[in-house]
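hey
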């Protein structure tokens, strides 16, 4: 989808959402967003902050008593901006693990560590674990599940009626694309991995139609006041793992040729996603693919040029 001045001026679908049943992709097809989820996780935290339920500089012991001492200097702001220094939980999953991890399993993995990569706030290091902890903070403070908080405080107010943070045992994701990876000359289904059920860092399913509503809401004050919303689009971390970009709250932020661009990509087993916004001219492009390593960034940049 390409969005210009509040209108979806181009909406296209290609290929199959399900190779086994030959169901075609459509604009309403829901893809796992992978790390595009992080912008929603950050929004959930900002909603809680706007209500005074938490503060961005609250430290983790408030929410996770009994954590190792290294937690004492990590704040919510560090988690949002990937400057916490937390170790990569995906490299710490115990050998032989077969059951899918949930956000709370990530917490338990990190509880067993005794150090960080660097002092909190010292530099940027992309952390999926940090966003899993943010989802748990939302649960602790709101006394509801993260998925339910997203549904009632973000998705339904914006009319994103088909978007869901999927939890096992809940109704199936409607109009769902399955994920695939190329193996030689063919594709095989690679829809789930050990970490696919972790919600805070990548567990939302959505379509370009629903993401249009999300894109437009980010120009308004439907969820939080504009001064707080704008903090999401400020490069609190002046550098990142993407050359030329800093990091806000759930968004990469960069300026090229005098124009600001906020963006994020997502990559997980079977899915690749990309969302780029040029706020000054109210122009956005969203690409969702149900295949690994789909090369979307090159496509986005060509469209933007």
């Amino acid at each position: 989808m390409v969005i210009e001045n509040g209108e979806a001026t181009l909406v296209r679908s290609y290929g199959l959402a399900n190779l086994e049943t030959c169901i075609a992709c459509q604009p309403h097809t829901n893809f796992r967003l992978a790390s595009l989820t992080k912008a929603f996780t950050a929004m959930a935290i900002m909603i809680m902050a706007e209500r005074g339920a938490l503060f961005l500089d609250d430290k983790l012991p408030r929410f996770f008593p009994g954590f190792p001492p290294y937690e004492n200097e990590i704040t919510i702001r560090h988690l949002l901006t990937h400057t916490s220094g937390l170790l990569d939980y995906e490299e710490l999953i115990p050998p032989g693990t077969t059951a899918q991890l949930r956000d709370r399993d990530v917490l338990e993995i990190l509880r067993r560590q005794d150090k960080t990569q660097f002092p909190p706030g010292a530099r940027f290091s992309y952390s999926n674990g940090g966003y899993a902890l943010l989802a748990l903070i939302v649960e602790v403070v709101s006394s509801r599940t993260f998925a339910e908080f997203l549904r009632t405080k973000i998705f339904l107010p914006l009319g994103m009626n088909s978007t869901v943070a999927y939890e096992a045992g809940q109704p199936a994701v409607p109009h769902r694309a399955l994920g695939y990876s190329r193996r030689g000359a063919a594709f095989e289904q690679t829809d789930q991995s050990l970490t696919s059920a972790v919600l805070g860092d990548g567990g939302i399913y959505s379509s370009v139609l629903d993401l249009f509503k999300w894109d437009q809401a980010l120009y308004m004050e439907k969820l939080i006041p504009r001064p707080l919303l704008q903090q999401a689009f400020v490069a609190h971390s002046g550098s990142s793992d993407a050359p030329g970009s800093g990091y806000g709250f759930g968004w990469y932020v960069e300026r090229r040729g005098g124009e600001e661009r906020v963006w994020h990509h997502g990559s997980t087993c079977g899915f690749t996603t990309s969302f780029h916004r040029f706020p000054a001219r109210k122009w956005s492009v969203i690409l969702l693919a149900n295949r690994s390593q789909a090369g979307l960034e090159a496509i986005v940049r060509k469209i933007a040029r």
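The helical segments are 37-50, 76-80, 103-111, 128-142, 146-155, 208-217, 226-230, 296-304. The two ends are 16 Å apart (CA to CA).
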